[in-house]
């Protein structure tokens, strides 16, 4: 019974942790964002949203609501990044990387679950 309960909790913990990491990464004030080579931020956005999509599916969130929620979260994060208190800039390219990450994560989930069957 304990192992079954852990199997149910672990995916939700992973998704929650991914959400927590995303909050830090997306809403860190501009002064706290490390410098990196050009384009690195797009890779971070893509991977972050791919991880959110995979862990969300693992946690049992249905594909369409998860995709809609993550794309909405991506759009909202870009709007909020463009506000004065964060001193960051909103970017359509970052939003595109976020959406691509959601699509990639969902594709990885579908492919990995098909192989497991």
UniProtKB/TrEMBL annotation:
Transmembrane recorded as keyword: yes
Residue intervals passing through the bilayer: 90-110
Top-rank taxon: Bacteria
Entry keyword set: Membrane, Transmembrane, Transmembrane helix
Protein name: VanZ family protein
Lineage, highest ranks first: Bacteria, Bacillati, Actinomycetota, Actinomycetes, Geodermatophilales
């Amino acid at each position: 019974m304990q192992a079954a309960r852990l199997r149910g909790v672990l995916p939700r913990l992973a998704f929650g942790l991914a959400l927590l990491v995303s909050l830090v990464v997306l809403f860190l004030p501009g002064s706290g964002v490390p410098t990196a080579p050009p384009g690195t931020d797009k890779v971070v956005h893509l991977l972050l949203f791919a991880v959110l999509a995979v862990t969300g599916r693992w946690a049992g969130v249905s594909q369409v609501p998860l995709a809609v929620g993550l794309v909405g979260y991506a759009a909202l994060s870009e709007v909020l990044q463009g506000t004065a208190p964060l001193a960051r800039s909103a970017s359509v390219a970052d939003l595109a990387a976020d959406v691509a990450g959601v699509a990639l994560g969902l594709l990885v989930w579908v492919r990995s679950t098909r192989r497991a069957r």
